[in-house]
Fold each of these.
Amino acid sequence: MSPRRAAAALRVSPPEAAPVFAALGDTTRLGLLGRLSAEGPLSITRLSQGTGVTRQAITRHLDSLGRVGLVRDVRRGRERVFALDLKRLEKVRQYLDHVAAQWDAAAARLKAFVEK
Amino acid sequence: MTVQTQKAQDRPSTDRIERRIELRASRARVWRAIANATEFGAWFGIKLEGAFAAGATIRGRLTIPNYDHLTLEMQVERIEPERYFSYRWHPYAIDPKVDYSTEPTTLVEFHLEEIAGGGALPSRSWSPASTASRSRAGRRPSA
């Protein structure tokens, strides 16, 4: 007897989100975001303390996060102070919601099409 | 209709969209609706010129109201009969004046399986796999 039911799973990977998640895919960078989240804006000096990672490396990581808009920096005297900026993450979320809504409609049309 | 969104599950996925739908149709019927370009076009709303083949690029004009002035290009990636179909495209290439060919593409994958006896869905573990890394990261699409 041939099966009369099937399940279709759909996966869509929009590129919009990829740079943000690539930036998050590193334990040092996640650690930096964790500290900025818990402690508020911090200087590179403060962020480097106790990490065992050089100040230059921390700066590079912060710049990666800055490029995708997860942190922003302001100069305070001679120092750069970094703060979390989650607007970018929220935009990625909104974009995914929009694409998801379009696919929900397409899935409903597929269902109607094969079940008629 | 059963549509499970990832939001309702344990592991929220934030860099991709995953949907699972249960269909009262045979696997062969569903496969045809997905892998036959004419049938795909009928429910998706696109009039495709040509047939799906792995590695092929085919174009089509959308037939969805308000979007029917747009032509999209699909790059078929992989076809495993009655099991898996994937392609890439620029889903929100909504400005005919813009050249989207240099923009990163979205990977769309369909996984099909039978549901034994029509009872509970067999659990399927999604490997976060390489989909995110395979979708070329780069500039954000202008759409």
Amino acid sequence: MKRIIYILSAFLSINLAVGQTPVKKGNVLIQNATVLTITDGVQEETDVLVENGIIKKIGKGLSAPSNTPSINAKGKYLMPGIIDAHSHLALSVVNEATSPITAEVWMGDVVDPFDVGIYRALAGGVTVSNAMHGSANAIGGRNITLKHRYGTHNPEELIMTEAPRTIKFALGENPTRVHGRGKGIQPRSRMGVEAIIRNGFNEAIQYRKAWENYKKASGLKNSTAVPPKYNLRLETLADILEGKLIIHCHSYRADEINMLINVCKDFGIKNIVFTHVNEGFKVAPELAAYTLGASVFADWWAYKFEVYYSTSYNAAILAKNGVITSINSDDAELIRHLYHEAGKTQRYGELSDDEALAMITINPAKQLGIADKVGSIEEGKQADLVIFDKHPLSIYAIPQMTFVDGVKYFDINEDKNDQRIKVSPTEVVEPIFLGDHDHKCMHGVEMFEETGEFFGTH
Amino acid sequence: MTKFYKQTFLSFTVAGVFSFFSYGTFAQSDPTGERRVTGTYAITNATVLAAPGAAARTATIIVKNGLIDQIGNNPTIPLDAQTIKGDSLFVYAGFIDLTSTVGVAAPSIPERPANFDPSRPAPVYVGITPQYEVLNYFDALEEDADKWRKTGVTTLHLLPKGEGMLPGTTAVVLNGQKGASNVLSSSGSLYVRFQTVRGLSPGTTLGIMAKWREIYQNAELSAKHQTLFAGNNGVVRAEKDPVLEAFFPVINRQVPVLFEVSNELDIRRVLGLQKEKGFNLIVSGVNEGSSLVPVLKASKAQVVISLDVPDDNAFKKEIKEASEEVNDNLERVKEAYLARLALATNFEKEGIPFAFGSTNVKSEDFLKNIRLMVENGLSEEAALAALTTNPAGMLGLERVLGTVEKGKLANLVITTDSLFKKTAEVKHVFVDGYLFQYETNGESNESDKSKKNDLTGAWDYETVTPQGSSSGLMTIKNEDGKYSGTITFDDPEGSGSKSADLSNIKVSGKTLEFQFNVDVQGMSISVSVSGEVSGNEYEGKLTIPDFGSVPFTASKSPDSNI
């Protein structure tokens, strides 16, 4: 009997291993740290106990089960893992730039767990990123929220399965250049972009209706109802209309931001985040009233015509107007020091420590719909944590250890130099693409350029 | 032209005397002279490896009517049989290449209309043509086919060519006699690739994944619709969509999907799609993925390992004054290379059966790369299974192919030595009972003996060290088959030159190795040189202990033969 149970349990566990992707979860006790909770102020000389990947307790003089590893973080700073709401890290492909709407594609299909950029992001304290489709299309693909569980061959282990779906939209110069000028199809102008989006939603309404009618009719006795064609693109757009996805919209100009807010109002869409938003300061009240906020660069502009009207005070102005504001990287290099980027809001706008750090923690968490799970140090939240040697808003601060789900994935003292998971058997020096970070957003779309000229990037 | 034709022609007159008795001979002329005299053969006293893992046995095989008619110790040899003396030969079942495109042409793509919209192209423009059958684009086998036959490949699983993700369905043909009907099975797998047509939708792996899901789902709906339409009145007419209809056999699990992959992430994508719909799957082009063993097992997918092996140049490159970091890096590159070679070994250990595919592999590298895998731990049994029984099973043709057994198709590979030895060569190949014969190197060496490298003579050599280049003269003699020689070099302790005798001179094939001693400050340093001779040129390296290697080249003055 014992043997049978043994075999049975072995069988079940194998099935489990195959059926569901196991995610590593750790236990750790971090002691005597200056804990930057983000949502509950700064707590000096405080312990944080992590059990099974979850923050179990925050307090002084905590004790842990005997086999829990402990880290003395006296004199060090503990903050929640940094969250990047706009990234293209760990993706084999960024743009499916072949149609003005490509809502059918999903970045989850092209997650590249071997991208050493994930490790570099961990070394900058980033534990969660939104791996986004590029900005070539008015409506791009569905994005994927990643947790940086570096070290696996299995892309599924990186996926934050509990995060809601998000989708990329893009306004302005990129979609009009790729499709309008590049291929001679709609959209050729900002008006065309609006038309593309409105048409898409209207088609999705009809599509959903056709399926609902079919489902009703096919349930009847002796039904001869015929199923409509399946269309993954319209399926996704219909889900947006039903509030199942959060739109993350690439945008720069105030007029186009206003346009999309109006479109969303017309179609009853509430879940929308604007990203880049360089002219966001002009429409801050509207953004505050109607959206999940703005995800901006700290001080990056003038890389193409639509990005000239910009200010470093953008983030602070938005925040002071009550807009949920995050600072993103959109870039494999910038993602390594988002805490510097957050610090710039203190130079330009005199934000408080909490306000500045919220821009790379709880605010992006809200924009990704995961603020109940990550983004602050609270009991019951997932143990994504970073230990800094100095206050993270100090220019001298260096991350020391980074944890995801209580598992340590970065340790400045213990890690090997070579952190690549996979190595090419035929190249000693793997190719490095200089300037690659400049055009991730438009990655893979050069072929559609009329003359090969490259105007803009993000 | 193979030797087959010549042999047939020569023996025609001789055999003509007996043709009166022979089976299947009719009183009509054969002005081409190409028709074979007999289809009956006896391979006598050969070492037969009937199946992977079976013990080698000495037996005589009778081939008749395209089949293995007899196999045994002493079967009666039919009167009309042509005999092949197999005393020193090894017989294997013919090899099956699961990813061949020999003789396959790409279908032409129609011209794009004036109002062509690249975001919504008709399927034919983006290679979504699963309804295309490869045999419609397959021309009689050409010289190419003989190259593959010569390497032992007797059965070809033909993949359709063309651009895009769904070029068509596959078929199985025998790599046999030109003019014969060689089709074995026309209802092959549905062939899918991660390939797109530039600038059109779908344009990337992202688009392909979405497109696949959409087509599959719509094929299921279309099948449902057609059934409804066929059985009821008052049903909206079911449109016939050739793309969707090509998916019906896949949905009904009648044929597998053969998905071409190029890396581990592709494999995971494909296994993910299979998990969604549960179709029968062959993953082809597998070149990495040891970490995938449990998922591969669970998926029950069949595996075709790519014989496209990377070269070993990268980590063998000598980097001067390499730092520790660079050396560590080289070590990782080497590990990656060895891991690739050991992939098949790994799958064997884990109990994942596999076949081999030749995509992007030249025919001359086919056996070479398999032997490389055997050198890296793959058992001969598993290697042979991957060439014969496993692919036969994947194609559902195990009844007629894969082993040397009575009643199976006479597809045989006859080699001069045990197949996985480097020196073994294919001497005869039977396909469908047709005999093809090949000249082996052993034979050509005999006739080319005069062309063999003559090492004796005076060689001017040059070697380049970090301190600069130096040169000298090396003289090689051959007395009664024994090599000896001397070499001159710059005196390391002063000016002028010194001379030393060559020792340990080894010659095998093209390689020439020797050593000599240099006396420096009372120490005798042993210097070794190894390299390859090609005509009057020698290229190799000179190795000094604890110092490293430097290039060493030499050329012989043509009239210096002693």
